[in-house]
Amino acid sequence: MHNVAKSPEREYGDRSSDLNGWAFNAMRQAFLLLAILILSAPSAASPSDRETTHGDHASTHEWGFDIGLGLAGIDNPLNQRDNLVSVVLPQWYYYAERFYIETTDIGYALIEQPSLLIDIAGYVNQDGILFNTDNHPVSYLEISKLIPNVGGRPDTGQIDFPDIERDFSYMLGLKAMYLNDWFELTAQWGRDVFQGHGGEEFTFSLQKSYRFGDWKFNWELGTVAKNDAVNNYYFGIRAEENGLRKDTQVTDKWLWDNYLKVAVVYRLSESMSAVTSLHYTRKPSALTMSPILEKQQYWAGFVGLNYHF
């Protein structure tokens, strides 16, 4: 990696990043301690708690399948990368007593109470999708989730952006949900178990669904904190990619993605619904120094019909 002489500002930045890293380590330890304390408390829950929380069609020990037909896409913010467009969006899900599958997400319920859910949860990191929009099946499966159920750029040599490859990172960790009559609050921590780059993420979201007859409206507001390992893996430049002698990192600290989801569903029949969904994401401004990232914000969306088997 590039090593540069430290100015007073750089030294201050190092101390700030150290404090930042300490805070997130403390947050992770507190999160794990909370889970252990809750696990030690007595609890009882029925499968119906998870069924009503994780899906309108969920039924314990049965597979469910959905097919979305319409127009879906991701406005790719990466430099010289194609957008992702699809007209068919498949989904599937399965719920056992505690284990569940929701397309590319998997989980195991540790605690199920009327107002609190804590799971061991696995999910696909979203940055990997942006690098694999060229007909990769995982990207199409991820976009199906749209249906509700500072400074200059680093100096580099000539870069052939379409040839830059990054693989998917699958994150495994814990997820906790707090439920009440007004909103659902979710906190999730995940660590990469596929690529070995040591990436970690914290996700915090607030969401709510409303029903009015055959209409359903859903919104979700959230933020995803990603450590330097995740950001540098996806947005750093490898030496072999820019013709320089060393890799170029883009950050040495945690950065935050912010997002907003809204969806409107109208039930046409017991097995078919019309769906309109939008997902807005804003990447952190510190990442704009990476030549890979062309736009700081991007949209994804779906308009069409969803058929439930």
Describe this structure in words.
The protein is of the alpha+beta class. It has one domain (8-308): Beta Barrel (Porin), CATH 2.40.160. It is 21% helix and 41% strand. It contains six helices and twelve strands. It has a twelve-stranded antiparallel β-barrel with strand order 1-2-3-4-5-6-7-8-9-10-11-12, surrounded by four helices. A hairpin with a 7-residue loop joins strand 7 (184-192) and strand 8 (200-212). It is globular, with a radius of gyration of 21 Å.
Give a brief rundown of this model.
This protein is 21% helix and 41% strand. It is of the alpha+beta class. It has a twelve-stranded antiparallel barrel, surrounded by four helices.
Q: Which descriptors would you attach to this protein?
A:
309 residues, alpha+beta, Porin, 6 helices, 12 strands
Order of helices and strands: HHEEEEEHHEEEEHHEEE
* Alpha-beta content class: alpha+beta
Question: Number of domains in the coordinates?
Answer: 1
Query: What number is the mean pLDDT?
Result: 78
CATH topology: Porin
Helix percentage: 10-25%
The Rg value, from CA coordinates, equals 21 Å
CATH class category name: Mainly Beta
Spatially, the strands of the biggest sheet line up as: 1-2-3-4-5-6-7-8-9-10-11-12
Q: What is the CATH architecture annotation? A: Beta Barrel
Shape: globular
CATH superfamily: monomeric porin ompg
Unreliably modeled segments: 1-17, 41-58, 150-156
First-to-last CA distance: 52 Å
Strands, count: 12
